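Record format v2
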Amino acid sequence: MEPRVAVVGIGHAGFAPITAGVSYKELMFEAAQRAYFDAGVDPRTGVDSFVCCSEDFLEGTSIFDEYVPDQLGAVQRPVQTVAGDGLFGFVTALMLIRSGIASVVAVEAHSKVSDVRSLGAIEAFALDPVLNRPLGISTLNVAGLEMNAFLERTGLSEEHCAMVASKNRTNALDNPRAAYPAHLSVEDVDDSTPVSWPLRDLEVARRADGCVVMVLASEERARQLTEAPVWILGAGWASSSPSLESRLWGHAESTTRAAEMAYRLADVGDPAEEIDLAEVDDVYAFRELEHLEALGIATGPELASLLEAGDLDIGGEMSVNASGGSIGQGNLFEANGLVRVLECVEQLRGEAGERQVDEAYVAVAQSARQVPSTSSAVVILANDAGAGG
Amino acid sequence: MLEKLERPDEVRRWKGRIPVSHRYTPGVAGDVFFTALRDRGVLLGSRCDSCDYTYVPARLFCERCFAELSADAEVGPGGRLVSFTISYTGLEGEPLEQPVAIGLVRPDGADAAIVHRIVETGDEPLEIGQRMEVVVKPDEERTGSIHDIDGFRPTG
Ligand SMILES: [Zn+2]
């Protein structure tokens, strides 16, 4: 994909179940300060455009664009908000640069979910108001239906899903920013209360506050700004059938389509072979497996053997959610997509500390907005060595 | 002044509410579906011949090929269980006194599936793929909403 665009700065703040006393604007300011310092840019003069991702109901406001410019240094500058996952903001920033409209773009997404007092009601509001909402079903129920259909189709078991939750909580022990690190055994997960059987309590990512800001730049500017650019080799995004009635249950169809687009642009032919690490949506543990299948990394039966052999662990064949994923780091809602890119960038820079994956050259970050939505996005990232210099 | 708070009892928070109410229009196809459900107790779907796909509830257009559809495909009441879940928690995570079974049933003649409660589970454990039936409320209790369907029950 030419001309190339790189991530040149990353910053984050929060990543805690509660960030008491700090407003969402201050969380954003803190993450933005770090990202601009990392990129070596002054937002008032060196950033051409700003993209923020948020959902009004989660913010408790409406018309959120008026709430974002000041804390990012974007007052009286080109700003837009995307009502969706952070990865959609990321690809918007990519397009701004590739189209020649901007050379340097900042993208932001955050969660201040500890301020939300009626999260279940907000999530239920995403269901069809005439057909589904009157039944009082929750997004956990939608996830339970999806999990049961997925396990039935693939032959994967509840225990395989428990293994994912155990792996991700354990990976988080080596991630200083993770909100929910724990030594959690497969049995602990398997014994936890069912919330919407077959989905269990410890297979659902816990909420967390936090913010991620990234600075993207054109190849020319990236070379001036950093010695360790992380290149965006490809990006894709797609929807599936929006309605519960007509969607294909048990398949992450939108991720399959988003991945096809990203692989085509990045010229990836064999993802399992060419990609070194994956950060994928695991807000519900089974979704990690569903998404790996949709990304073409392994089929259902292959996933069972990879899990059982520890090949998805850090240092395995393909490290998946070395960061701990959402289960280990916390569910940051619209920021989840940028959290996945953040980990890929740290890994590709060799800055991931105790959880550093050896020989990390090419990474995939995938995000799916919360159920019942079927929006997914996929980006392929590489360092200089992975991008062929 | 720029240092963060260190004590939780110093945290100041302001509580607010969003007063939102709304009116939702089921639409042309939705009206036909709910009228047929209320007056005749049947499920009406929409057939797209070029996609070989039958939607239920009825729709004005096909999401696959963008064709305009009509609402004249009667489906069910028998069908198959596509998936199910047993809910133990309410909307805000509170434990339910009684678990609730929720199912997805594909009515015979349809490709789409309907979401509803499973009102009778029978003696055998539920299994994906098993035969089910859509239970419609008695004539005098139907008002033209999704609640005109009581739920699903296993058959055979
Ligand atoms: Zn069609």
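Residues B 48, 50-51, 62, 64-65, 67 surround zinc ion (CB under 6 Å).
The interface with chain A takes residues 4-5, 8, 10-13, 15-16, 18, 22, 24, 26, 30, 55-57, 63, 82-93, 102, 104, 111-117, 128, 145-147 of chain B (CB under 8 Å).
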